[in-house]
Amino acid sequence: MPIYKFKDWTPVIATTAFVHPLATVTGDVVIGHNVYVGPGAHIRGDWGKIIIEDGCNVQENCVIHMFPGTTVYLRAMSHIGHGAIIHGANIGQNCLIGMNAVVMDRAVIGDESIIGALAFVAADVAIPSRSLAVGNPAKVIKQVSDEMLNWKTKGTQLYMELPRELEETLTEVRPLNEEEPNRPMHPNQYLTWNETK
Q1: What is the radius of gyration, based on Cα positions, of the chain?
Q2: Whole-angstrom Cα distance, residue 84 to residue 21?
Q3: Which is it for strands 139-143 and 131-134: parallel, antiparallel or unpaired?
Q4: Which of 43, 86, 90, 169 has the greatest CB tally within 10 Å of its CB?
């Protein structure tokens, strides 16, 4: 997997984390236990430090970076959706950053908040804890309910189990062709937010 030392900084990755071979981690980066980093993610700690605490996931094609002299925090159980960009921000515990959302420099996302897909959180904005924020620029539209938070937490727990499962079973193979038997179906273990209502 592409893990790169930059100047005097070598990434530190917990033994129970999983960084996909197609992800890139550079420089002053600390990745905690049971963290999942998906293919295409770029975590670049060249101009500052990135701390990804236990239980986080950084999904496919995410970018985490900063302006010089900044420390980026993803607090425990942060859930960074596909294609999101975290640039110099502080993401609180058990937050969900939606797909293709952008969170800019010095923004602070309070614990247990949800940032909607495609939202833009501008530099220096503080989103209070347990807030649902959407739009460009992102605005708080309501508080995160217990039901919404439970749904988010269950989804993140699936990602916390994924590193172990990938270490045990991920194998590069040739694909089956149409004449070979089909693989087993996935059980429906997880409902979308709308299906939980």
Answers
A1: 17
A2: 19
A3: antiparallel
A4: 86
Residue 124 has pLDDT above 70, yes or no: yes
Angstrom distance (rounded) from CA 138 to CA 171: 40
Q: What is the pTM for the complete model shown?
A: 0.92
**For residue range 61-78, what is the model confidence (pLDDT) as tens digits?**
999 999 999 999 999 999
Give the span between the Cα atoms of 179 and 62, in whole angstroms. 36
Q: Which of 47, 12, 3, 21 is nearest to 172 (CA)?
A: 21
Distance between CA 62 and CA 132 in Å, rounded?
A: 21
Task: Report the alpha-carbon distance of residue 99 to residue 106 in Å, rounded.
Answer: 20
As a whole number, the mean pLDDT across the chain is: 94
* Fold held by 3-143: UDP N-Acetylglucosamine Acyltransferase; domain 1 (2.160.10)
pLDDT at 191 over 90: no
Contact present, 75 and 156 (Cβ < 8 Å): no
